[in-house]
């Protein structure tokens, strides 16, 4: 496995009309804390991103520029398969936003360039459709930039950290903090699944914690419709379930349940299921053939193991079922801050009764 994603443009998604919202009323700045080294044993893989490296001189094409006479691109905050993510200043509304922009044109063929544009457009359609759901960033606009009319999406800037950097900072995460993240993601996914979508890319890099501990799920770019045939070979290695490697399988919410289970192992333990395999998981190999090299509290281990069952039908029957099982292990309303609270504190929304945003 040599890359974080496999590519293909997405299916047609019915669009939902959204009105351009007011400037989101959230504090700006304080993005993405530095990633500390972690003892987590997730095998590493290299993602080569054509056109994303500043050694090609492509970043300056967009940094500092004013897109569509409105968005001043300030700083790069993330990098993905199809484009980079920036903080930009919306000079019309006077607030900061996040912009996901297609990589600037480099040496690629027109076909490759236009298929990247259509991938961003597919993501825009899905995000627009799901933008009303709590915990999904709101779409604020979209546009084209530069001579080659690269596509970009303007969205709500989530002020917080990725769950990836949060894990690196606090690993191993306490059971209650980890369950608080998974429970919030279950609530977000409940909305996604009720819209008949499967996210297909739930992983620590695609989830964020706002500064008050509320979770947010990013990157609906490869989501697909429930019951449809698995549309392509895309996903994040180790977080994608076995059936995501199979073009004949049908999409079910259990895809996302598997990924959440892997997140539990990544947060609390030191191994990820099927982590020693070089290729896709197979039903002959158990998730941890050599056993677990770190201890996990029993209640969590039983739940997490069931979530990463090879067969979808061996997993809890959807995120509501996961929530039912872990509900009793969550912090109670009014409870004190845990002794070793993380920053952001994922237990805070439960202790203070904060709804998802
Ligand atoms: N709305 C947002 N607010 C704040 N940060 C964001 C936002 N959207 C994305 N990011 C940052 O940019 C990174 C990449 O974003 P995203 O996952 O949407 O892109 P991607 O191209 O799909 O990346 P990948 O291929 O790695 O999944 C995220 O991990 C996060 O750090
Ligand atoms: Mg992503």
UniProtKB/TrEMBL annotation:
Entry keywords, A to Z: ATP-binding, Kinase, Nucleotide-binding, Serine/threonine-protein kinase, Transferase
Nucleotide-binding in keyword set: yes
Protein name: Serine/threonine protein kinase
Superkingdom as given in the UniProt entry: Bacteria
InterPro entries: Kinase-like_dom_sf (IPR011009), PAK3-like (IPR051931), Prot_kinase_dom (IPR000719)
Organism listed in the record: Streptomyces katsurahamanus
Gene3D superfamilies: Phosphorylase Kinase, domain 1, Transferase(Phosphotransferase) domain 1
Region (Disordered): 1-32, 333-357
């Amino acid at each position: 496995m040599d890359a974080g994603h496999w590519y293909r443009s997405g299916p047609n998604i019915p669009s939902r009309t959204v009105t351009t919202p007011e400037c989101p009323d959230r504090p700006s700045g304080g993005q993405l804390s530095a990633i500390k080294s972690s003892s987590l044993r997730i095998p590493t893989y290299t993602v080569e991103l054509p056109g994303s490296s500043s050694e090609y001189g492509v970043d300056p094409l967009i940094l500092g520029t004013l897109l569509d006479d409105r968005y001043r691109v300030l700083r790069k905050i993330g990098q993905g398969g199809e484009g980079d993510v920036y903080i930009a200043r919306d000079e019309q509304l006077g607030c900061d936003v996040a912009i996901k922009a297609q990589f600037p044109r480099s040496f690629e063929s027109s076909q490759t360039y236009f298929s990247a544009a259509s991938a961003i457009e597919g993501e825009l359609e899905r995000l627009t459709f799901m933008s009303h759901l709590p915990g999904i960033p709101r779409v604020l606009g979209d546009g084209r930039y530069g001579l080659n009319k690269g596509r970009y999406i303007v969205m709500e800037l989530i002020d917080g950290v990725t769950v990836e950097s949060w894990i690196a900072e606090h690993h191993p995460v306490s059971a209650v903090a980890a369950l608080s993240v998974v429970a919030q993601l279950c609530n977000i996914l409940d909305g996604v699944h009720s819209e008949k979508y499967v996210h297909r890319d739930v992983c620590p890099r695609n989830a964020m914690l706002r500064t008050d501990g509320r979770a947010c799920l990013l990157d609906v770019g490869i989501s697909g419709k429930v019951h449809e045939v698995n549309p392509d070979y895309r996903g994040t290695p180790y977080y994608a379930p076995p059936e995501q490697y199979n073009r004949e399988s049908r999409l079910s919410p259990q895809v996302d349940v598997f990924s959440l289970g892997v997140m539990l192992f990544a947060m609390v333990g030191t191994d990820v299921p099927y982590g020693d395999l070089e290729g896709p998981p197979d039903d002959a190999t158990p998730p941890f053939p050599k056993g677990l090299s770190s201890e996990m509290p029993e209640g969590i281990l039983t739940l997490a193991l069931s979530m990463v069952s090879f067969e979808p039908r061996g997993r809890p029957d959807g995120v509501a079922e996961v929530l039912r099982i872990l509900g009793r292990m969550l912090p109670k309303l009014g409870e004190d801050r845990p002794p070793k609270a993380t920053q952001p504190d994922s237990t805070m929304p439960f202790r203070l009764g904060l709804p998802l945003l």
